[in-house]
Design a protein that fits this description.
18 helices; single chain; 6-stranded parallel sheet
Length: 450
C-alpha cells in the first residue's frame, strides 16, 4: 500500500520505517527542514535501537523516502498517518494545533480521497473534530476523507520491537472499509509474515497479536487509559517505597511478590526517581484535564502525578542528609536519559535533579551513553565526561539516575578507590545494597534496607 507519514519524530520515524520494512511504500514529511536534510543524508535525528539499519535498508530498496515538500508527501499516499506532536499547553491540555494544521494541509493538497489515521496521542473526540475539519477545509473539492484512530504503544528504546511484535493493534473506525484497509496494512505483523530484522533466522514462537476494532472514541481513550494506568502503577510502587523506608521493609521484596500475582503483573512496579519522558507525564496531565472538562475530578491520577513530582525532592533530601551541605560538593551523575536505551531527555527526572543541584551550588559532572549531547544543549555548565570512571574520580557522591545496564557492571572497587568520598545515591535501585556495603560504599537508595 502507498502510505504517507506526516511528522518525523520518534513515533513517525518508527511507524514509517517499520511500515516500509513490512512491505509498504512510504513517504515521510516534516515541517522541520533540517530534520529531513539529516534523514536524507542517511543520518537519524534520534537514537533508537535497530532504527538505523531499517531506515537505510528501506531507503536502499526504494520503499522509504523523506521530503520536506508536504504536498508531494500527501500526494504519495492513499493512507496518511498523522504522527505530529501534541505537547502540553500551560493548562495541561494537549496542544492540537499541529493536528489542525496537518488537517488543513491534507484537505487542501489532496487530489484524491484518502484514509487519515491519527497515530499521535490525542484526547477523546479529536477524531470527530478531525473529520469535521477535513470536510470543512476541503469544502468545494471532489475529495473526501475517512478517519481512523490507531494509537501507538511504542516504548522508546524498544520501539521497533513494539511495532513489529505488538501486544495488540488497536484501531478505532467508523466504517468496515476502514477496518479492512487497516487490517491489510498490518497483515504482515498480524500473521508474522515478514523478514524480521530483530530475530534471525526466526522470531520466537509467541502468540500473534490481537487486532482490536473499536469506535474512534474508545481507541483514543485506550491510549490515555493505558499510559495513565502505567503511571498509577509506578506511583504506587514509589509510595510503597516511602512506606517501606519508614517501616523497615524492602520495596523490591514487596513488589516482586505483589507482581507475581497475575492480576497485578510484575511490570512498572520499579520504585525510584519516578516516570519521565515525553509521553507518560503529558498523557496523565491531558487525561486529568479531559476528565475535568467532562465534569469528573480524576483525583486518583492527580495523586499519582503528585507522588511522581515529589520523587526529586525526596532524592534531594537524601543527598542533603548524606552530604550535609551541597554547595561546593563534587556530584557525579550517571544517566541523563529519562530511561535506558534512548537519548531522549524530555521531562527526564535527572535533568530536573541537575537543575536543583546547580541551584544549590553543587559542582556537577555527568555521563550517559547516549544523552550527553542533548543535555549539553540545556546545561552547558555541567562537566560531561567520556566514561563513568571519570565522573566518579574525585567525586563526593555518585548519583545513579538512569538504569543503563552497563552501570550495573562497572568496576565498583576501582570507583571506590577513586572517589573523594565513596558514596552512592542509587535513584533507580540498580545496585545490590549488600554488595555495595561489602565494598565499603556509603549507599542510599529508595525503599530498601540500606
Ligand atoms: C510510554 C508507554 O509505555 C508507551 O506504551 C507509549 O506509547 C509511549 O509512552 P515511554 O515514554 O517510552 O513509553 O516510556 P516507559 O517505558 O513507559 O517509561 C516511562 C517512565 O517510567 C521512564 O522514566 C521510566 O524510567 C519510568 N518507570 C518505568 C519507572 O519509574 N518505574 C517502572 O517500573 C517503569
Amino acid at each position: 500500500m502507498r502510505i504517507s507519514v506526516v511528522g518525523c519524530g520518534y513515533v513517525g520515524l518508527v511507524t514509517g520505517s517499520c511500515l516500509a520494512e513490512i512491505g509498504h511504500e512510504v513517504m515521510c514529511t516534516d515541517n522541520d527542514e533540517s530534520k529531513i536534510q539529516t534523514l536524507n543524508k542517511g543520518k537519524l535525528p534520534i537514537y533508537e535501537p535497530h532504527l538505523d539499519a531499517i531506515v537505510s535498508r528501506a531507503r536502499q530498496v526504494g520503499r522509504l523516502a523523506f521530503t520536506s515538500n508536504a504536498s508531494e508527501a500527501i500526494g504519495a499516499g492513499d493512507v496518511i498517518f498523522i504522527c505530529v506532536g501534541t505537547p502540553p499547553l500551560e493548562t495541561g491540555d494537549a496542544d492540537l494545533s499541529a493536528i489542525d494544521g496537518v488537517a488543513r494541509m491534507i484537505a487542501t493538497e489532496s487530489q484524491s480521497s484518502k484514509l487519515v489515521v491519527e497515530k499521535s496521542t490525542v484526547p477523546v473526540q479529536t477524531g470527530q473534530q478531525l473529520k469535521r475539519a477535513l470536510a470543512a477545509y476541503s469544502h468545494g473539492t471532489k475529495v473526501s476523507f475517512r478517519v481512523a484512530s490507531n494509537p501507538e504503544f511504542l516504548r522508546e528504546g524498544t520501539a521497533v520491537q513494539d511495532f513489529l511484535h505488538p501486544d495488540r493493534i488497536v484501531v478505532g473506525v467508523d466504517e468496515v472499509s476502514t477496518e479492512q484497509q487497516l487490517r491489510e496494512i498490518y497483515k504482515p505483523v498480524l500473521e508474522r509474515n515478514f523478514n524480521c530484522p530483530l530475530h534471525a533466522p526466526k522470531c520466537p514462537p509467541t502468540v500473534l497479536p490481537p487486532f482490536i476494532v473499536t469506535t474512534i472514541n474508545s481507541a483514543e481513550l485506550i491510549k490515555h487509559a493505558s499510559n495513565s494506568f502505567l503511571a498509577l502503577k509506578i506511583s504506587y510502587a514509589n509510595a510503597l517505597a516511602d512506606l517501606c523506608e519508614r517501616l523497615g521493609a524492602d520495596v523490591e521484596e514487596v513488589t516482586r511478590a505483589v507482581g507475581l500475582d497475575p492480576r497485578n503483573g510484575p511490570n512498572f512496579l520499579r520504585a525510584g526517581l519516578g516516570f519521565g519522558g515525553f509521553c507518560l507525564p503529558k498523557d496523565v496531565q491531558a487525561f486529568i484535564r479531559l476528565a475535568e472538562r467532562a465534569g469528573m475530578d480524576f483525583g486518583l491520577l492527580k495523586e499519582a502525578e503528585q507522588i511522581n513530582r515529589e520523587r526529586i525532592a525526596r532524592f534531594m533530601d537524601k543527598a542533603r542528609h548524606a552530604l550535609w551541605v551541597l554547595k561546593g560538593k563534587q556530584i557525579g551523575i550517571l544517566g541523563l536519559a529519562f530511561k535506558p536505551h534512548t537519548d531522549d531527555v524530555r521531562f527526564s527526572p535527572p535533568l530536573e535533579l541537575i537543575r536543583q543541584l546547580l541551584g544549590e551550588g553543587a559542582l556537577v559532572s555527568a555521563y550517559d551513553p547516549q544523552a550527553m549531547e542533548k543535555t549539553r544543549a540545556i546545561y552547558p555548565t555541567v562537566r560531561y565526561e567520556a566514561d563513568p570512571y571519570s565522573v566518579a574520580f574525585g567525586a563526593d557522591a555518585l548519583l545513579i539516575c538512569t538504569e543503563w545496564p552497563e552501570f550495573a557492571a562497572l568496576d565498583w572497587p576501582r570507583i571506590h578507590a577513586s572517589m573523594a568520598r565513596p558514596m552512592i545515591l542509587d535513584g533507580r535501585n540498580l545496585l545490590d545494597p549488600a554488595a555495595m556495603k561489602a565494598l565499603a560504599f556509603e549507599y542510599h537508595c529508595f525503599g530498601r534496607n540500606e
